[in-house]
Amino acid sequence: MLRLPPFRYLAPTSLREAAHLLAEEGERAMLVAGGTDLYPNMKRRQFTPPVLIGLRGIARLKHISGTPEQGLRIGAMVTLTTLAEHPMIQQYYTALSTATGSISTPQLRNMGTIGGNLLLDTRCNYYDQTEFWRHSIGYCMKKDGEICLVAPGSPRCWAISSADSAPVLVSLNAQVRLVSERGERIIPVRELFRDDGMRPYTRQQDEILVEVLLPPADGWQSVYMKLRRRGSFDFPILGVAAALRLAEDQTVQEARLVLGAVASHPVEVSEASLLVGQRLAPDVISQVATLAAKRAKPLDNADLTINYRKQVTPVYVRRALAQFVKV
């Protein structure tokens, strides 16, 4: 049986107290929301923080406010179940409802939070193993080792981003609010990530992700499609998030396309701009899907084979874009 390492648990009841504790404890501390990813990682000794600061008791992190016309503010501690079942999100931010409803199992969605999922640790077949297993083959550079076992000649870690909410929020042009004792800052979700499997986030150690800010719906429609080995609770092998704004004649006015689980960060497909000014005819969709697939460069660090993961990308992009076509 895997057991948690010893730690001290702090339970602030206000955001100010949480920010103070995080600044005071420094690198000794980690934040915990639902704990659905952090606790298993601690059991595998991927993280061994002496101090955990729980955010569960901070009521102001659990709100959803606003309107589709003005935009929505979503507290970082709002559960995945709440988002998946929220009528306003289902109607106006459909991809976010789909993505959060596809994460893990119902029990874990009841515990897991949007903030926790957005800051999910990057994953790799050689990293997400027990400490005994990792010790037996030699540690990787992400934890205790010096080389990337996926690409031994590479100077960097290639662990992949597997957060279903991440590509969706990038495609929706969402922002996040980060708070620390030094103040606060609001940044686009896309700027929260960096292409680095070991240090995948630009969030500073003393910052708390407080809110996700969704822009006004303003005629945007969105879709999320997820590929996984088991249809019930696996991490994504591929995620495709698409957001389009269509004119009355079904001509594309604006388009965003983002791939998840193909790199250490959500990958924006700039070729989505080719859709603008056109209707979603099969040849147009196929052209963009083929170009999007070139953005996916999988390595042997996730489920299923490299070739399959590469070949399925244009298929899922086509399926996602086809969802916008009105029969």
Instruction: Give average pLDDT, whole number.
Output: 96
Percent of residues in helices comes to 25-40%
CATH architecture descriptor text of the largest domain? 2-Layer Sandwich
Q: Determine the structural class based on helices, strands and strand pairing.
A: alpha+beta
Uncertain residue segments: none
* Largest beta-sheet details: 5 strands, antiparallel
The number of helices is: 11
CATH fold-level name of the largest domain:
Enolase-like, domain 1
Q: Which CATH top level class of the largest domain fits?
A: Alpha Beta
Rg over CA atoms, rounded to whole Å, is 20 Å
Strand line-up across the major sheet: 4-5-8-6-7
Write down the secondary-structure element order.
EHEHEEEHHHHHHHEEEEEEEHH
Strand content: 15-25%
How far do the termini sit from each other?
A: 54 Å
